[in-house]
Amino acid sequence: MLPEEEVGGCSRTFFSSLVQLIPCRAAVAPFSPVPPTESCCAAIVTLGRPCLCLLANGPPLSGIDRSMALQLPLTCSANFPPCDVIT
């Protein structure tokens, strides 16, 4: 697990960032036609780009379509650029 200290501009751990995105679970499930809810979009804005990118570059997560998760800032009209995903 990553330390509590700031990692790549994110002041949260990987796990706490993931918990913050619980409202987005239905919107990022594989093959989900469900758009993000207002609470999901609020979570994306609160989480911010550094923590979303931390999740995007973290280990694979069961039940989460990473490409759909990376579309959330655009879908939610969050004003931050896309993450640079390390493959």
Automatic annotation (TrEMBL):
Q: Tell me the GO molecular function terms.
A: fatty acid binding
- For this entry, list what GO says about its biological process: systemic acquired resistance
Q: Which InterPro entries match?
A: Bifun_inhib/LTP/seed_sf (IPR036312), Bifunc_inhib/LTP/seed_store (IPR016140), DIR1-like (IPR039265)
* Record domain Bifunctional inhibitor/plant lipid transfer protein/seed storage helical: where: 19-83
Note the superkingdom of the native organism. Answer: Eukaryota
Official protein name in the record: Bifunctional inhibitor/plant lipid transfer protein/seed storage helical domain-containing protein
